[in-house]
Amino acid sequence: MAKDRNADIDFAGPVRRILIAVLAILLVATFLVWRIDSPRVERFRDALVDRVVPNMDWALLPVTKVVGMVESARSYSRIYEQNQQLKRELQQMKAWKEAAVQLEQQNAKLLAQNQVRLDPQLTSVSGVVLADSGSPFRQSVLLNVGARDGIVDGWATMDGLGLVGRISGVGERTARVILLTDSSSRIPVTIQPSGQRAILAGDNTAIPPLDFLEAPEQVRPGDRVVSSGDGGVFPSGILVGEVAKDRDNRLRVRLAAEYDRLDFLRVLRSHPAERITDPGVLIPPEVPPLVAEQSRMLGPQPDGTPGPGPAAGAAAGTGATAGAAPPRARP
Question: How many C-beta atoms lie closer than 10 Å to residue 327's C-beta?
Fold first, then answer.
C-alpha cells in the first residue's frame, strides 16, 4: 500500500520559528526607530503615532471595561459593609431609645411620687458663637448676646450636650465665655455614682484633671461627672463629662461638649439662692406635765420669768423644814 509522504512532514515547527523571527525583527526595528535621533525618523514616529494610536480604542476597550467592573465590585463591597454597619447602629439606637423611654417614664413616676417642683426661673438664652478669642494661654469664645439680653457675669453656658464654661465679661451686645479647659477655670463637680466631690481644674488641654478628691479609689473611668452647685455659681446636675485616666494614671474628665464645633451656646439664667436672715423663734425643750403644772401654780416671777421648777420648790420646802422648831416629844 502506498504511503503519503506529505503526512509525515511537520509544518508547525518551521512556521513557529518563522513567526518568532518575524516578531524579533519587528521588535528590533521598533526599538531602532524609537532610538534613532533623526528629524526624518522623528516625523515618521509622529505620523505613526497619529495614525495608529487613535485606532487602538477597540483594543483598550476590554481593559477599560474590566477596570470599571473591578471598581464597581469594590464600590458594592464598601456599600455592603456600610449597610451592615448602619444596621448594627440602628439596632443599638433602638435599644437606646427603649432605654431612654423607660428612664423617662421612671423619672416621671419618681417626680410625681416625690412631688418635686422644678425651678421655673431656670431658663436659658441662646446665642451664636461669633469668634474664638482664645490663645495658647487663654481659651474663650465670644457670643452675640450681652447686657441688653439680660446676661450676667458668671452664668453657666452649655451646648446641646454638656457644660462649656461660664460668662466672664459682658458687653452691651456681646459676652465672653471662659471655657472649662482654660487654665483659670475652677468649678466644683460631683462624680456619680460614688458621690465624690472634686474640683475640675482647666489646664489648657481637652481633658482637664480632677483635683481635691477625697477617695480617688472609689472613682472609676467612665463615671459620670456633673456640676455640684456648690458656691452657687452653677446650677447642680449639669452634665460635664465622664472620668478618664491618662498615661500617668491621673484622673481626668473627658468633656461631653463638642469644643471643636461650638456654633450655638445656651446661657443658663442661674439666679442666686434666697438667703434666710431671720433666725426664727428658738424652740424650747419639752417640759414634763408635772413640772409644767407646778410652774403654773407658782406663777411668774416679778421680772417676768417663769416660776421656779420642782427643784426650787423642793429646796424651799427643805429650807422651811430646817428653819422650824423640832417637834416636842410626847410623854
Answer: 6
The answer to the question of residue 307 being in a domain is no
Which cell is 77 given? 463591597
pTM: 0.49
Most confident of 38-47, 61-70, 221-230: 221-230
Most confident of 63-67, 134-138, 202-206, 285-289: 202-206
pLDDT band, very low/low/confident/very high, at 310 (cuts 50, 70, 90): very low
Strand residues in the chain grouped as ranges (E): 124-131, 140-143, 156-158, 163-170, 175-179, 186-192, 196-201, 210-211, 224-227, 239-245, 251-255, 264-268
Which three three-digit cell numbers place residue 233? 455659681
How wide is the angle at C-alpha 173 spanned by C-alphas 168 and 175, nearest 5°? 15
Q: What is the DSSP letter of 209?
A: B
Per the domain annotation, does 60 fall within a domain? yes
Report the candidate in 219, 134, 236, 242 with the shortest Cα–Cα distance to residue 183. 134
Amino acid letter, 277: T
Same domain, yes or no, for 92 and 45?
yes
